[in-house]
Write a structure and sequence with these properties.
alpha/beta, Rossmann fold, 6-stranded parallel β-sheet, two-stranded parallel sheet, 10 helices
Length: 260
């Protein structure tokens, strides 16, 4: 009997790309979407695992980053509880588990509900992550020009389509931007090569916000706000050494920035 991998958040920004690239693994995907199961209902995550008995669990589900309130919604804390329930159920049936953190999940003074929730989840699973019992995937600044995410991509695309100039408050802030397709392939590589513990996912290079906007074909001008707080993890790149060793490379990201 073929082994199966339970993939939550399968219709999300990263989840769609994970399914697209899944042929690189030896297991059969069992995609789970919110329309199928509401994992925020207590007991639903444990029931799902008990019914499907997967060999692997790739947990990508969370409050969608496309929601205007995703950083402030109370659902963030509910997702921590649902994820811990899922992890407990998966470990009970012997399934290997991969979870998604964020580039800022190490912040000690997180100011928004989303980051606080990711920090709490990582803290609760710190021993399991350190010992390689679960995989902790840490995508950096994920973008997708087709899905028009995040907001700056949507604004740049709209400005380009209207022939307008986009006014940027932080044009020179640099981040490790990585295309959602490359993140999807990185998740697949982690599963296929059993990369557990902490796994940063990025391009390993810095690009400015203005550079991203320009590569998307939009004109921009600086409308900088000196009073705006500096974002966390600017000027930090993901250590992608482990991913590179599997043969993975951030090809879609490089195509945009090097040839766009």
């Amino acid at each position: 009997m073929a082994s199966h991998a339970l993939i939550t958040g399968a219709s999300g920004l990263v989840g769609g790309w994970v399914l697209h690239h899944w042929d690189d693994t030896s297991t059969t995907p069992l995609p789970v979407r919110h329309a199928d199961v509401d994992l925020l209902v207590p007991g639903s995550a444990a029931d799902l695992v008990a019914r499907t008995r997967p060999a692997q669990v790739v947990h990508l589900a969370w409050s969608a980053s496309g929601r205007p309130d995703y950083r402030t919604t109370d659902d963030n804390e509910r997702w921590v509880d649902a994820t811990l329930e899922l992890v407990g159920a998966a470990r009970a049936v012997g399934a290997r588990v991969w979870l998604t953190g964020t580039a800022v999940d190490g912040e000690v003074d997180a100011t928004d509900a989303y980051t606080r929730a990711k920090v709490r989840l990582r803290s609760a699973l710190a021993a399991a992550i350190e010992q390689g019992e679960v995989g902790w995937l840490r995508p950096f600044y994920v973008f997708d020009e087709v899905r028009r995410r995040p907001a700056v991509v949507d604004l740049a695309t709209a400005a380009r389509e209207r022939g307008e100039t986009l006014h940027l408050r932080s044009p020179h802030q640099a981040h490790d931007f990585v295309h959602a397709s490359d993140v999807g392939r990185a998740v697949v590589a982690a599963v296929a090569h059993d990369l557990t513990g902490e796994l940063p996912i990025g391009s390993g290079r810095l690009h400015t916000v203005a550079e991203l906007v320009a590569r998307l074909g939009a004109s921009w001008s600086a409308d900088e706000d000196p009073a705006a707080p500096a974002p966390a993890h600017t000027d930090e790149t993901a250590d992608i050494t482990r991913l590179i060793r599997t043969g993975w490379a951030p090809t879609r990201t490089e195509e945009l920035f090097d040839h766009g």
